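QA checklist item 7 of 12: single-chain prediction sanity check.
[x] sequence parsed
[x] length recorded as 518
[x] structure emitted
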Amino acid sequence: MSTSPNRRDFLALTGAAAGAGALALTGCGGGSGGGTADDQGGPRRGGRFRALFTGGGEQETIDPHAEALAIDMARTKALFDRLVELDATMAPVPRLARKWESNADATVWRFTLREALFHDGKRLTPEDVLFTFGRILDPRATTHFAQPLLSVIDLKKSRSAGKNVVEVALKRPSAEFPALLGTLGTAVVSSRYADPAKPVGTGAFRLKSFQAGRAFVAERFDDHWGGGAYVDELRVLSADADARGNALRAGEAEFGYEMSPTFARTVRADSSVRILAAKGGTAHAIVMKCDQEPFDDPDVTRAFKLLADREQLVRVVLAGQGVVGNDMFGKGFQYYPEDVPQRTRDVQEARALLKKAGVLNKTLSIYTSSVASGFVEAATLFAEQAADAGLRVKVTTGASETYFKDQLTKGVMGSHRSGAMTIPNYINDRLLTTSAFNASGWRRKDFDAAFATARATTDEAERAALYGRLQRTVHDEGGLLIWGHPDWLNGVSSRVRGMEAAVPNTMDSARFDKAWLA
């Protein structure tokens, strides 16, 4: 299996390997190509844009419905468009769909499509959208990420309702349906799409070549409905964190994905690199399994939340690059209840609750791994904080390769993080009795029923209030100790314009159609 190249391998791509599909990273004026721009003027076309991501070896794909890695998502964003995107608050905004509306009970949705062309010159039609849904929902497909979310679609009753209108019928009411179409794995493909190696999309770039684990190159699609990209060519390559940082500083790349807080500090005085910091773009937590002792007692989970020194965790683990969490997912996102008071540390109250529950004399363990930056450090520091109340917490480290699967069955506590998604999607994926990734073992039928009611409520203000109530329940009784929201740190060359900090997986994150080179 191919792996992400290190710095030496990265530079070796300029040699004989380039003939096998790898890409040279030097020359052409450090990536400027033929384009020029004046910092005082507007965007100008031209040049080559090189973006570096953690690689996934031979598991990488350009199938937009099987995207699983950040590098996959960057490539599919270049080649395809979704009907809907999510803005910085994770609310739905138009993309290929210009507008949408539903019937009174949100069981039928009508999407009006914009005028858009596929890379083969054919016009986007409702039939393409219906074909896309059929492909995503194909029961023979086991890697289509959005299949569970979009299973609400009743494909047999969905139809074309005119030249540019598609009518989507649902099996149950869903006031959040447009937001579902802005999630991973929902890009629209042509009804002529048959081979993932030969993508037919409407994206701002058209594929030239792709080699999993190595490189991807695409050219500007001048007939894109949004006017096309500014750069002539986009190259997305696999590189480890050190190679990404070194290449940015050496002028051998224009974009580096998910840089470390340490790198962000070291380049503060470097005029050649700029950091795009999305404030609080992710969530880091310690999960307590509410279906196991002692965390089946809400007083115990509340005690553990009171033991956390969140400011210290953010300062030490995140090097200050983040904000404290309040045991609810989605800080700053749509439906996040901002009026819930911030939970603060209270060792005395925590100790009293733990003593009452008979937990102080027990040794509990946190199951963690180095699979994600900060996991082991946060678990270790929290164990030290818990000791202030006389509690013994042991840190157990598991294998990175299988951690997220193992954590569902091992230990009574574990490390957890989540990238950006809508709050309803997070609840659906992580907090329902039937959720496949319910790391906190939170299973309550009344909570499931309340979520179903919220999801079906068409009045926006009422729906927001219902989601807020669900979030408060998790805050008060659930097993999520969300201690911090790290900044999402991406690096760009100082020559890059048209890119600013954005919450991950939204319209502006790792999308390069509006980037241009000064």
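[x] summary fact logged: Residues 1-38 have pLDDT under 50 and may be disordered.
[ ] second reviewer sign-off
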